[in-house]
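During the no-cost extension, the postdoctoral fellow (Dr. R.K.) reprocessed legacy sequence entries with the updated structure-token encoder. One reprocessed record is reproduced below for audit purposes.
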Amino acid sequence: MLIITLILLSLTAFQTHLDYKKIHHDAYVFDGHNDAVHRLLEGEDLGLQTTKGHIDIPRLKTGGVDASFFSVWVPPANKSKSYFNQANSQIEALLNFAKKYPASIRVALTASDLEKIRKEGKIALLISMEGAHPLGDSIQNLDYFYSKGVRSIMPTWNNSTSWATSAEDETNTSKKLKFKGLTELGKRFVQRMDELGIIIDVSHAGEKTFWDIIETSKNPIIASHSSVWNIFQHWRNLKDDQIKAIAKTGGLVAVNFAPYFLDKTFSKKVEAMRKRHDVKIKALKKSWKGSALSREEMIGRMLKEEYAKILPTISDLVDHLDYIVKLVGVDYVGLGSDFDGIGVTPKGLDDVSYYPEITKELLKRGYSENDIRKILGGNFLRVIEKVLK
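Re-encoded structure tokens follow.
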């Protein structure tokens, strides 16, 4: 009898294993935010299986990812060229990447593009802009970047623009801001984004900016890579009233995979651990030639065994999803990995190829297949169908 029971348990476990992978790869999977462009600029070929970072075409396919917003992010401190020209160079790098691998990946501009690209068995690359400082004060620049393929914009990164204040600046009490929220020009930018069909993304937006956007825009709003304030009071996480307001617009909150936003104990653990390895870290920083993003990822690899002891888990990530579902319903949540923009990832979610493990955890928690499909990408598709022209 014991042997029969063990066999049945093994068969059940095997069936569950098959089911979560089948469900995952059959679903439309949409990642709301990645920072892979900096790796293209550093000369990596993301069409091939790479040994660094979190994203490349083979790993996107293994992870069952059908589409992702590839972010254009210009470091505000980098003034070697104009922000406008730097953003333009990043867009060209993304477009050239898609041109180099037409059998695997294609730029999407509309909701119908997403459907066609999936039928072709390809990955959809959508372009977003993280921080609107490349626009300057020019609505004409907004129109230009739309013509280049940008379909989602965050009015701020951690830095404020001349017309919108960021979450970091609004919460930093040492900063004396001339204004908070959107200026009249900022409201015109938002209105023009609505007219063009650009998704407005409030990840990184200050609270005053957030509420001004909610009052100004007529379209569904997203937070492409933000987590839950009531689980961890990080200045980049969203409070309950913000999550409810996003849901009311018909938008969604895509949960960020960054350990710093998921686990309130993580920062202190990291600080203590990195202090113990300060000499190694300083040596790497001194010799590093690449970007700050790739440098942090390399530090994460160098200290992988140490990080493994303190990283939050996939379960911690899904806790944030659960919270949003219980607060506003399953129609208003998604996934925004921030892959290649974060130095380390949750345990068991090392890169984009591990995406099916999220589906496995959702099944374990009793989510229905229909609800899982919404979380993985269905909700993003709904927003895109509503906003993109």
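The longest strand covers residues 123-130. DSSP finds 18 helices and nine strands in the chain. The remaining legacy entries will be reprocessed before the final report is submitted.
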